[in-house]
Specification:
3% helix; disordered N terminus; 4-stranded antiparallel beta sheet; 5-stranded antiparallel beta sheet
Length: 383
Amino acid sequence: MTAVLAAAALVLVAGCSSDGGERPADDRSAASPPPASASATPPGSPSPSAPPAKGTVRVVSTLTEGLASPWGLAALPDGDLLVSSRDEGTITRIDGESGAKTVIGSVPGVAPAGEGGLMGLALSPSYASDHLVYAYFTTESDNRIARMLYDEKKPAGQQLGAPDTVLRGIPKGSVHNGGRIAFGPDKMLYAGTGETGDTGLAQDKNSLGGKILRMTPDGQPAPGNPAADSVVHSYGHRNVQGLAWDSEKRLWAAEFGQNTWDELNLIEPGKNYGWPEVEGKGGRPGFVDPVAQWEPADASPSGIAFAEGSVWMAGLRGERLWRIPLAGAEPSAAPQAFLEGRYGRLRTVLAAGGNKLWLVTSETDGRGTPEAGDDRILQVEVT
């Protein structure tokens, strides 16, 4: 097995920000084989804990449907979900058993346009006591992160308190607004941002655009950041929309490339991930190469999650779910594609414990081809 894995080609072809495309006829079968074009750099000897070279995906059910431009997803302690609508600026609670939908409120100040609007969601690390929901959203002047009290005792539609802004001044644009937020194992808040099409922002350490940010729950620079007075954690990014930690607490991020390569990166504090000087694996001193890369038609990655020893990456233009099995900090086998074209564009994937994932489609975002029932949240089992 070791020899087989060591010889495996790291199959990588990726996506760009222009992630449109036709959606094929609906097909509800669970898994698809990896494309013949998949290939890779030999990852070295996998650790004993590496997952199998080949995995499986089974769509258990459709939890709910009829969602409008869903983007962010957060799991409540009781198993229900919160989902944001990018274009409507609302947050909806989804019953984790029945799929029943309840709008809990609108976020004031959201100004949806282009790729901007109400995007990432995250629950406070102290949610059990403070009931705070964090959101990343576009306003008339910037992208920002705010937190709101979620009071379930109030009437439906009025359960969100006034936004308390924790970070403002993230550059906004019609494209490349980033938008993913997540609390890490260190209980610090991380945010993926975009460079709004102004490529120079990614290399400008004084700008919040084209970065991964790390901050306290109050929006202050987190202890141990590369610069003590800055929330910038890493830079040289084009448009980060996927953040996840593996079992060893390493941070992984997915981002859109331009015309050549989309990327999955292992994130280290203070490192430069290349954009716009390098796209994909350049091998240039001073820049960190991605762990994996994909051509535009096959990815356009948004959300990622870690489960069963692999990173799972949702593809928009690629309309597929990618599995990247890991041996420590490197792939242990070639990435594998599932659900290709069967549910359309895939926006968000969230670990749900054990071998379970939540998967959110994105056909109603203005770039898809909506069909009856779009958009959906799928219950998925993986190995």
